[in-house]
Amino acid sequence: MLQRRTAHPAVYILPMLSVTFLGTSAARPTVERNVSAMSLVREGETLLFECGEGTQRQMMRYGVSFALSEIFFTHFHADHFLGVIGLIRTLGLQARPEPMRLYGPKGAKKLLTQALQLGVERVPFEVEIEEVKPGMVLRETGKGKRETYDIHVFGTEHGGGSVGYALREHERPGRFDPDKARAAGVPEGYLWGKLQKGETVGLADGRTVSAEGIVGPKRPGRLVVFTGDTRPCAGVVDAAQGADLLIHEATFGEEEKERAKETGHSTAREAAQVALAAKARRLVLSHVSARYSISAEELVKEAREVFRETAVAKDGMTIEVPFAD
Ligand SMILES: [Zn+2]
Ligand SMILES: [Zn+2]
Fold first, then answer.
1. Among residues of the chain, what percentage have pLDDT more than 70?
2. Which residues surround ligand 2, an ion (CB under 5 A)?
3. Which of 19, 181, 196, 248 sits in a 20 to 30 Å window from 61, CA-based?
4. What's the pTM value of the predicted model, to 2 decimals?
């Protein structure tokens, strides 16, 4: 039986936003951690960032949907993209009709095309590969326009034109005040919905009422920033200004800070300095060296001396990103 729907046009449903870490180990998998991959779910849409070897199995394990249409790569070191070969094959076996879009910095076309040609069968759905550059704003998916957020591409320092991605939601409508709407004589119903959108409404008695004073100022959306591998750098600080969640690599601890510099990676403390400089709300460390595979508490401790709101990711961990207000 069909359920009767009651219209509540003035109720603004807050979209859920969460990230799930599918792989948090640097360079190679360990017993506890797989190599890089992270899914982001927003309003039922799933995006994948990186796709290290074995990512498809991690997705099954941690309940991440295979109904995704975009994968974002930060660079093409093997631990960040080898999993795309198997994942695309599996999606092909599932008789998927939708196209898939893959994003990555310079070299993406050549490398990903080669990866997709591995294996005998032809991929039975369309795969588009888009090369991205710092400063680009990805407003469209393979299916059309992103409605309520954009993906911003920023430069990182890991050699070879590596990039990071920032998911930035558009501004939200201001807070609606039902008492003020009633006081202005606007009856509850579809007119409330119009006011909520900032429109001026006409009443039965001929008066018009504007949204001003009934609806508060627009409120910022959320910002989630994913760095991929990088040295601490100004590009990330800029991209992560006021981020609700900054996911920064922290391959090493303080005692290996020279090694971090030589290999184009960050220490946990350096990641914390970036979070502090960006005035981020929360920092999650990922891409940890195998020596921290079992316990990365040392990394958290070092980072928290600089930035309190720090956690370290582990495989299967899901983090909800609430609105700041
Ligand atoms: Zn890596
Ligand atoms: Zn790398």
1. 95
2. 77, 229
3. 248
4. 0.91
